[in-house]
């Protein structure tokens, strides 16, 4: 029974890593669609929302099944609990990627037209995709130090968001309110995406070490 339980835990973690990678791929494609006005690619990202939702539902049920299979203690219980939390973060990452893709789909006036905004959002998109890839690797290899490394990149995303808002609120902004709002939303989506990736990596730290102090200090609700 214990061998079956531990095999189920390993499979669960592997599927979580794949889900996080999928969310990262969705954000990468959404960003490309936005920058290149690629409506077909944006539609692909939006269509994957159902896939990532289905993955969440299947893996959530597996977590419950594992808890019912054998009452886990200590490290085993941490794996199930933190995986369940990480699933919520990964699902929200996928939804944020869809939000970016939907802006690419719906806006005839692309918010990337401003020369000052474009490089900032391009950099934020690269960092967001990298954070997702690093979070997936952290899950896959159970790296307890990954949270601190991801936090450094996430700090840059936060700084870029502040810089973006400065441009959008400046008196010389000449691209209208609608484009300013769209650009602000995109920046916010990247920022929240990065926060969820960091939360997943910090969950790995708790899973491996049992130390919740860093995780609690940087907690992010999967609903935001």
Describe it for me?
The protein has 224 residues and is mostly helical. It has one domain (2-217): Methane Monooxygenase Hydroxylase, Chain G, domain 1, CATH 1.20.58. Helix content is 83%, strand content 0%. The chain has helices at 2-36, 39-47, 49-69, 74-106, 117-141, 146-168, 176-209, 213-217. It starts with a helix and ends in a 7-residue tail after the last helix. The mean pLDDT is 87.
Averaged pLDDT:
87
CATH architecture: Up-down Bundle
Task: Tell me the CATH superfamily.
Answer: Phosphate transport system protein phou homolog 2, domain 2
> How many helices?
8
CATH class equals Mainly Alpha
What is the radius of gyration computed over CA atoms, rounded to a whole number of angstroms? 19 Å
Strand-helix topology:
Layout: H1 2-36, H2 39-47, H3 49-69, H4 74-106, H5 117-141, H6 146-168, H7 176-209, H8 213-217
Helix pairs in contact: 1-2, 1-3, 1-4, 1-5, 2-4, 3-4, 4-7, 5-6, 5-7, 6-7
Question: Outline of this structure?
Answer:
The chain is mainly alpha-helical and 224 residues long. The protein has helices spanning 2-36, 39-47, 49-69, 74-106, 117-141, 146-168, 176-209, 213-217. The mean pLDDT is 87.
